[in-house]
Write a structure and sequence with these properties.
- About 4% of the residues have low confidence.
- The chain has an 8-stranded antiparallel beta barrel.
- Helix 3 packs across helix 7 and helix 6 packs antiparallel against helix 7.
- With 600 residues, it is an alpha+beta fold.
- The protein folds into 4 domains: 215 residues, no CATH class; 124 residues, Sandwich (Immunoglobulin-like); 123 residues, CalX-beta domain (Immunoglobulin-like), CATH 2.60.40; 95 residues, no CATH class.
Length: 600
């Protein structure tokens, strides 16, 4: 059940989203290309929790954290003794699964003592969609991160908080965590610029579960009304069959960036459809055989959108064989099905779905198949490769199909080759593998009824081969590698040194060696974008190791106000953020869903 199980805590607040945007347009990297500033040209890449606190949870099934519980209001923070985590796109040609790197999650007591801490396993967001209607820029978009917390620590003080004590008592090796993010303010000049709203949930993780999504009963995107979408959601049945828990945290449309529910979604019903043939968008008569599980009030939304419902024992047979659904009830008693479970209850999704692959190296990804929330054996999943942002046939090669085993999983083995620089100015190429348990008549992947969209793929940045330069060409090679970073990440010029000027970098030898030698999971890893191939990084380290040590370099760090950084770039951000790749993709997903519902 992942974080939908208990014990669990929910939390919410805001988050820092200081992503750099001068690297968003691939065309700006090529010969003669002009970088576009975007909405945050001097972003540092930092991701952090801001004023997040515990809002609820369950110490045991059916025992919610009640008003007055000492856990309510506890601060949820990152680490105080390391750099901020980083939020990073895979590539300018793939901005649809940005990853959080190097995050530590802590719950702290009133005196600042750590009650609980865990390391967030790197994960990319999923289920990007326009939660705030047609609001331009990132402010209208919603998405979710699902991951696990590892290297767990429970402080001695957690015993004073029943829900934390219950989590600790399970002696977990990992915990599951889900984050919903929305409402990023991308208009400069505001005190909340580059921040957004966040809700989250932490709960158990069980062996065999995926690491990057909840393998429960998937409800697809749908429509509340013409032009008003609802996002995807997931539900899980408790092991004893007595409770159904739903994550609606990224499902309901919102009326403002703070997360207020759209009035049209003030009350959502949960039920079991009469049969598989009933589609989203159907209007059921008031007297239809439609077993209802409960009604959820979304004004105000439940903490983090997590809802736990006690089940009537008589509903079990229907729940075991028919689709779950969300609905709204009209004044005349008829019910509009706004979202429903995937066709035949089958849900297939890839774990470890984002890859950075050196030229010619193999890779693997794991597919999980669930039917009505249980592992699905013998499911044939079809795969198809594609390329983005460059001509040519893919060099990432998957098998044509795989079949799940008894545990409902199948490993996809990917072979690769050197892409041989198909994108001038950018390393390698972005390639992806789409997947589906069904095919259309023409042999292409059929996503209808799967709970998947065109963004649900296994995606990889395949890097170019790079022969090590000779000693004579070493400095020139390093300058060629670093110059694009000076152009597209001007904050480095302001806060460290001009990356395109090797003489300016020499005094920073020790700092650069430290940052470029870090593990990729480290928040101090350089480059922040994590897009430099291993042989190219080795070339820069070779040059740095050959320089004489200059310990005085750290004392010459320039002190430049953030506002002055804008003077270092030739382009200026627009006062109003326009559409970006993420926004366009989110609206494409919504349009795809609307078109599919119209066809039905």
């Amino acid at each position: 059940m992942s974080y939908l199980d208990s014990p669990r805590i929910t939390f919410g607040g805001r988050f820092l989203c200081d992503v750099p945007t001068m690297n968003n347009a691939a065309a700006g990297f090529g010969p003669g290309g002009t970088p576009q500033a975007g909405w945050n040209p001097v972003g540092s890449g930092a991701f952090d929790f801001l004023a997040c606190t515990v809002t609820g949870g369950e110490a045991a099934p059916g025992e919610p954290v009640a008003a007055g519980d000492p856990a309510l209001g506890l601060a949820v923070v990152s680490t105080a003794d390391r750099s901020s985590a980083k939020l990073v796109d895979l590539d300018p040609d793939w901005q649809f699964s940005s990853e959080v790197w190097g995050l530590t999650v802590r719950v702290i007591g009133p005196g600042g003592e750590t009650l609980f801490a865990g390391r967030f396993r790197t994960a990319g967001f999923r289920d990007l969609w326009p939660r705030l209607g047609s609001t331009p820029g990132l402010g209208g978009q919603g998405a979710s991160f699902t991951s696990v917390l590892e290297d767990l620590e429970f402080g001695p003080g957690c015993g004073g908080y029943p829900v934390l004590a219950a989590l600790s008592a399970t002696r977990p090796a990992r915990l599951s965590i889900g984050l919903n993010v929305f409402g990023v303010l991308s208009q400069s000049g505001r005190s909340t610029f580059a921040t957004g709203s966040l809700t989250g949930c932490i709960g158990p993780w069980h062996a065999g579960e995926p690491l990057s999504f909840v393998a429960g009963r998937r409800l697809e995107m749908g429509q509340l009304a013409p032009g008003a979408s609802v996002g995807p959601s997931v539900a899980a049945l408790s092991q004893d069959g007595a409770r159904l828990t739903l994550d609606l945290g990224n499902m309901f449309p919102i009326a403002d960036p703070a997360g207020t529910a759209d009035p049209r979604a003030a009350s959502i019903g949960v039920g079991v459809l009469p049969g598989e043939q009933v589609r989203a968008g159907a209007i059921l008569p008031a007297d239809a055989a439609f077993p209802q599980i409960g009604t959820v009030s979304l004004v105000p939304p439940p903490p983090s959108g997590i809802v736990s419902v006690t089940l009537d024992p008589g509903i079990a047979p229907a729940l075991a064989s028919r689709p779950l659904a969300l609905f709204t009830t009209r004044a005349d008693g008829r019910r509009l099905v706004i979202s429903r479970e995937t066709a035949d209850g089958l849900y297939v999704r890839a774990d470890d779905f984002i890859h950075r692959i050196e030229a010619g190296e193999p890779a693997t990804a794991t597919l999980h198949a669930r039917r009505r929330g249980e592992p699905a054996d013998g499911v044939v999943v079809h795969l198809a490769a594609g390329r983005r942002g460059a001509p040519g046939a893919p060099v990432l090669t998957p098998p044509a199909q795989v079949k799940t085993g008894l545990d409902g999983t199948a490993v996809v083995s990917l072979t690769t080759a050197d892409p041989r620089s198909p994108r001038p100015g950018l390393d390698g190429v972005i390639e992806f593998v789409g997947y589906s348990p069904r095919l259309k008549a023409d042999g292409s992947l059929d996503l209808a009824g799967t709970g998947l969209t065109q963004l649900d793929v296994i995606v990889a940045h395949l890097r170019d081969g790079y022969p090590p330069p000779s000693d004579a060409d070493l400095e020139a090679a390093v300058q060629r590698l670093l110059k694009p970073y000076a152009t597209h990440y001007p904050i480095m010029t302001a806060q460290l040194a001009d990356l395109g000027d090797l003489d300016a970098l020499r005094p920073w030898r020790a700092a650069l060696l430290l940052a470029m030698s870090r593990d990729i999971e480290d928040p101090n890893y350089m480059p922040v974008t994590r897009d430099l191939s291993a042989p190219k990084r080795a070339t820069i380290l070779r040059w740095l190791n050959g320089l004489p040590a200059e310990p005085a370099g750290m004392s010459r760090r320039p002190v430049v106000p953030r506002r002055a950084v804008h003077d270092l770039i030739a382009v200026r951000p627009e006062p109003e953020a326009g559409p970006d790749a993420k926004t366009e993709a989110a609206h494409e997903v919504a349009e795809q869903v609307a078109e599919e519902l119209d066809r039905r």
